[in-house]
Amino acid sequence: MRFLSMIRIQESGRLPSEQLMADMGRLIEQMTREGTLVDTAGLRPTAEGVRVRLQGGRLSRTDGPFAEAKEVIGGYAILQADSMAHAIELTQRFLALHGDEWDLECEVRQIEGPDSEHCAAAKAMAAAAV
Asked: Which of 74, 98, 111, 121 could, after both became Cys, cross-link 9 (CB 3.0–4.6 A)?
């Protein structure tokens, strides 16, 4: 099963130390070798982002920064895990690297796909391919 771990941070412009980047690089390499990390990346600041909204049938656009946002998604990891519990363990490995200097939170959610019993669209596509 695949899971998306979204890293929430308070956007402060603070950058990780060289040591933290090196530690993350080693963990990323290890998890990639294990087959538990599919993809990961940090996201650029909200000042460079755009929000596109559909409301009442009308599209609107808001350029960043987004002043009302206290926490933002600062990065993500796509994990290959046997269960939600396993995905949480993998996420905790990442968070533990940051020690007590950072205030982070990750939201972990399963990605719908062919191996998910809840994805009707994936089931329909699989049945059509037979």
From this structure: 74
